[in-house]
């Protein structure tokens, strides 16, 4: 369904590159925090989407039972 690479595979090369940048450790920390927020957002979105799909099919089956 989703043909993109998993998000952790997209960000790993960036994190490895940032490990070499020790003059500015704040940048690596910032990227890590942003990635954490992004991961949480994707997880919540997936859960909400699957719940919505389940609710939507429940509504359809309720409508079929009523008619």
UniProtKB/TrEMBL annotation:
* Chain ranges passing through the membrane: 26-44
Keyword list, A-Z = Membrane, Transmembrane, Transmembrane helix
**Identification of the protein by name:** Uncharacterized protein
């Amino acid at each position: 369904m989703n043909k993109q690479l998993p998000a952790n595979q997209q960000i790993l090369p960036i994190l490895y590159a940032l490990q070499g940048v020790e003059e500015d450790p704040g940048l690596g920390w910032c990227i890590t925090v942003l990635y954490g927020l992004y991961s949480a957002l994707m997880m919540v979105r997936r859960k909400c989407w699957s719940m919505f799909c389940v609710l939507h099919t429940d509504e359809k089956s309720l409508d079929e039972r009523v008619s």
